[in-house]
Design a protein that fits this description.
This protein has about 220 residues and is of the alpha/beta class. It contains eight helices and seven strands, in the order H-H-H-E-H-E-H-E-H-E-H-E-H-E-E. About 35% of the residues lie in helices and about 20% in strands. Helix 3 runs parallel beside helix 4. The chain binds S-adenosylmethionine.
Length: about 220
C-alpha cells in the first residue's frame, strides 16, 4: 500500500491553482477594491473558494454559517453553491470589514443569500439555534477556534460540514520562532481536532491548509 503520498511543494500549490476553476471577474474586482480600501489581504485562496463551494453543494447545504467575513470573498464563493433559498450567515467583528462586505455582497449575484452579523464570534454564535446550519466555515481569530468549534458542533446538523482555515499557520507551522502570535493556537487546535468526539476531519492541503470535517 502506498501510504507516503507526495510531499506538497510550492510548485504543487501553483499547479493546483492553475488547474482549479478560477475566480470570476467580480471576485477579482472585490479583492482589488479590498486592498484599495485598506483591508488586509487575508482572504482564502481562490482554489479554496472553489473547494468550499463544491463541499457545500455536495453537502446539499441550505444554511451556512461563517466566522470571519472580511470583505465577503469566501461568503460569496460559498453562497454560489447554495440553492435559491439558501443563506450564509457570516460574523464579523470589525465594522470597516463588515461595511465593505455588505457593500460588495449587495452588488453580487448572491445578494439575497448573505447576512452579515456584526459582533464577536463568541457573542453572536450563541444566538444561532441548535442544528440550524448544514455547514460552517471558521476563519477568524485563532485563539477562539476551540470555542468556535464547540458552537459549530451544536449548530451544524449531523452529517453537516465543518471547515476551519489556516491549519498551516500562515506558513509558519514548523517555524521554531514563529512571528505570528496565532501560531501556537493553530498548533494546539490541530492537535485538538482529531480528538474531538463527533467529528471526522482531515486537513486539506489547499491555501494555508484547511480542516474539513463531517459532524457525526
Ligand atoms: C482571515 S479574515 C476572513 C477572511 C474571509 N473568510 C475570506 O476568506 O474572505 C478574518 C476576519 O475575522 C475577523 N475577526 C477577527 N476576530 C474576530 C472575532 N472575534 N469575531 C468575529 N470576527 C473576527 C477579522 O476582522 C477578519 O475580517
Amino acid at each position: 500500500m502506498a501510504d507516503q503520498g507526495s510531499p506538497v511543494s510550492a510548485e504543487h500549490f501553483a499547479y493546483v491553482r492553475a488547474r482549479t476553476t478560477p475566480e470570476d471577474d467580480f471576485l477579482a474586482q472585490l479583492r482589488s477594491a479590498a486592498i484599495e480600501a485598506g483591508l488586509p489581504e487575508i482572504h482564502i485562496a481562490p482554489e479554496q473558494g472553489a473547494f468550499l463551494q463544491i463541499l457545500v453543494r455536495l453537502a446539499g447545504a441550505r444554511e451556512v454559517i461563517e466566522v470571519g467575513t472580511l470583505g465577503g470573498y469566501s461568503a460569496i464563493w460559498m453562497a454560489r453553491g447554495l440553492p435559491p433559498e439558501g443563506r450564509v450567515r457570516t460574523i464579523e467583528v470589525n465594522p470597516a470589514h463588515a461595511n465593505f462586505a455588505e457593500t460588495w455582497v449587495a452588488r453580487s449575484d448572491v445578494a439575497g443569500k448573505i447576512e452579515v452579523h456584526r459582533g464577536a464570534g463568541l457573542d453572536v454564535l450563541p444566538r444561532f439555534a441548535d442544528g440550524s446550519a448544514d455547514a460552517a466555515f471558521v476563519d477568524a481569530d485563532k485563539v477562539n477556534y476551540p470555542g468556535y468549534l464547540e458552537h459549530c458542533l451544536r449548530i451544524v446538523r449531523p452529517g453537516g460540514l465543518i471547515a476551519c482555515d489556516n491549519a498551516f499557520a500562515f506558513g509558519q507551522l514548523f517555524d521554531e520562532e514563529p512571528e505570528d502570535p496565532g501560531v501556537p493556537h493553530v498548533r494546539a487546535f490541530n492537535d485538538l481536532v482529531p480528538r474531538v468526539a463527533g467529528l471526522t476531519a482531515v486537513i486539506a492541503p489547499f491555501g494555508d491548509g484547511c480542516w474539513v470535517g463531517v459532524r457525526n
